[in-house]
Amino acid sequence: MKFLKNVVVLFVVMIVALIIIPLPPFFLDFMFIISITISLIILLTTMFIGGPLDFSIFPSLLLITTLLRLALNISSTRLILSNGGEAGQVIATFGNFVLGGNAIVGFIVFIIIVIVQFIVITKGAERIAEVSARFTLDAMPGKQMAIDADLSSGLINEQEARERRKYIQREAEFYGAMDGATKLVKGDAIASIIIAMVNLIAGTIIGMIQGGMSFTQVLAVYSIATVGDGLVGQLPALMISTATGMIVTRAASESNLNEDVRKQFMSQPKVLLISGIVILAMCLIPGAPVIQIAVLAFVLIALGISLMRSATVQQKKEEVTEMQEFLEEESNEANFYRNIDNVYNLLGVEPIEMEFGYSLLPLVDEGSGGSFIDRIVIFRKQFAMEMGVVVPTVRLRDNGLINPNQYLIKIKGEEVARGEVLVDYYLALDPGNCTGPIEGIDTIEPAYGIPGKWITENEREMAEVYGYTVIDALSVIVTHLSEMIKKHIHELVSRQDINILLQNASKANQAIVDDVIPGVISVSDLQKILMNLLKEGIPIRDMESILETLGDQGVAIKDTDLLTEYVRQKLKRTITRKYTDGASIKVISLDQTIENTILSSAKKSEHGTYLAIEPQVVQRIVEGASEQIEKVKDLMHQPVILTSPIVRIYFKRLIDQFLPNLTVLSFNEIDTNIQIQAIGIIQIKD
Questions:
Q1: Its domain of life (predicted)?
Q2: How many CB atoms lie within 10 A of CB 266?
């Protein structure tokens, strides 16, 4: 057993000894047979492995087998030159077989074998190994990042990530070793040619000078020995070179070479049939070997027809199987929905859904390296810190019925927006100060409706130099989704969310929660107030201040709209920070006449307060507001209309029907240390 453990070490030591110690012909024959056997085993092994790393010792075997062949060539050369061309039965047998009685023709055949082995197979394998090594090393960072992404997203655990990293490292080391090991095969081929020439030339000189033989005798003796020795060395070298080429081209295989060739050739029966017909047509060429052509053509045609019939039968079997599975599924589905509780499970809708065309799936699929979910998680955190409410889970689905580059955004089962992006392109937006034009595909940015252009990676740098804002496709989708969530967040706040917010507030101030809920105000009314605040983009993080205000005002006031106005005034610091630059605010004021008209038109009913204003008056108010907004659009990025506290809510409801998303503030909602600059006034024109 100890001997078997060290057999490789002993074998390598013996090879080194062969270079120095003269061998008898019998032992040399035995070593030549061992060399051929080892090369055959290596060749067959490379054909049955599934991937390169299944035979990771191959580079080391290349070194050992090359050293073995060189040692045998040196030993055989010593015998040929010192023993009158006699170097054992293996060399003599191979030499007589190739020469076939004609030394010149045999030697030419031997030279051709050497050239083919050196130029075609060895050079090709060397180039493939070099390219594979370079590409494998270049791809390592991307593969490592993909593993880290899968690990961070939870698709794999630490052990699987460690194994993948180890596999990538082994693969890179293997191809790097192969890149160097192929140089051994190339050097072996060159050495074989040189040794063959030495055997022939030196043998001829020795035979004529020392042996006293004629030139014809010398040529006959030493040509046999030279060709035999060269062929015995080139045969294993040819097998090793072929094995080298096979192992470095196994990167895209799914099984062993035999299975891959059989499956992939047999998968196209029409190709075999057409090839057979074309080969059969060659019989029409005058002087062509009709029998050989016809046999091969009929074999190809018969094989093609047989495979086509087998494919048809297999397809019918698959169709029958699919139908049976479909019927079974339908039956199982019918049995499943006989339980009425399972039917009720279909009635629910997701708070937020997104549907994607198939071209966009790589952007959202974590298995493909997409980071969409990570971006949503980051947005959820930022939105919670900014607005005080947590965005619900976003359900992602694929939709084969929409454009491959489109996506849909749904709120509670209904579509609220859709967009279209181009994968691997960038959206270039003109902020208004660009210094040059760029080429691209015209489009409209889906979140804000801004004109833009889709540009390629090559044009990105130039666009940034010109001053364009360049955004990748994934950021476009995330921005659009975030804007839709901000717009509809008031619809997404459920009663359960309110209870969670109250639980969090009770951790900091249990007393205020117990005093207000439900004694002063119910959870449903609190939900309405919070929805009113979120609808106008007012953060609700300061839940303690909100509850304090409701506790103070809710005893006497039960109107949730009016309570919302008091809460807004309590949150004036938050509102001031949101709409001012810290020192001043530019506003459009409301004419006193319009405020008086609105106050006199406010009517209360059991369902709340409404405005009873004539349509002509409403139209004139809207026209006045639109005119002022148009005048100050260059001075105000986000127009703000300032009203008195009691009018604000009514004017907001009125103007929202015609100019949605317009910011309307009251005097009590702006901090006292902020300077108000009225740059316009909304009036009713006669």
A1: Bacteria
A2: 16
428/271: higher pLDDT: 428
Residues 6+ apart with CB under 8 A from 182: 62, 122, 125, 126, 129, 130, 244
Q: Tens digits of per-residue pLDDT, 614-654?
A: 888 888 888 888 888 888 877 777 788 888 888 888 888 88
Half-sphere exposure of 542 (CA within 13 A, CB side): 17
CATH number of 493-570: 1.10.8.540
Are β-strands 640-643 and 584-590 bridged in parallel, bridged antiparallel, or unpaired?
Answer: parallel
- Is residue 455 packed enough to be buried (19+ CB in 10 Å), middle (13-18) or exposed (0-12)? buried
Of 433, 656, 663, nearest in space to 537 by CA: 663
Residue whose C-alpha is closest to residue 640's, from 611, 677, 684, 672: 677
Q: Which residues pair with 408 in a beta bridge?
A: 355, 418
Number of H helices, E strands in the chain: 26, 14
What is the pairing mode between strands 451-455 and 426-429? Answer: antiparallel
CB 451 within 8 A of CB 442: yes
Contact 391, 331 (CB under 8 A): no
Tens digit of pLDDT for each residue in 130-185? 766 676 666 666 666 667 666 665 667 778 778 877 777 777 777 777 766 666 66
SS (H, E, C) 300-332: HHHHHHHHHHHHHHHHHHHHHHHHHHHHHHHHH
Q: CATH number for the 583-686 domain, one of 3.30.420.10, 3.50.50.60, 3.40.50.150, 3.40.50.12790?
A: 3.40.50.12790
Return the ∠ at Cα 167 (arms to 166 and 168), rounded to 5°: 90
CATH, domain 352-489, list 3.30.565.10, 3.40.190.10, 3.40.605.10, 3.40.30.60: 3.40.30.60
Cα torsion through 39, 40, 41, 43, rounded to 10: 90
As a whole number of Å, the CA-based R_g of the chain is: 43
Q: Which of 428, 408, 427, 410 is nearest to 419 (CA)?
A: 408
Residue spans of beta strands (DSSP E) within 403-554: 406-411, 414-420, 426-429, 441-444, 451-455, 469-472
Report how far residue 117's alpha carbon sits from residue 186's, in angstroms, rounded to the nearest whole number.
9
Q: 215-248 and 89-99 are packed helices; what angle lies between their axes, rounded to 10 degrees?
A: 90
Instruction: Quote the distance between the C-alpha of residue 347 and its chain's center.
Output: 35
pTM: 0.53
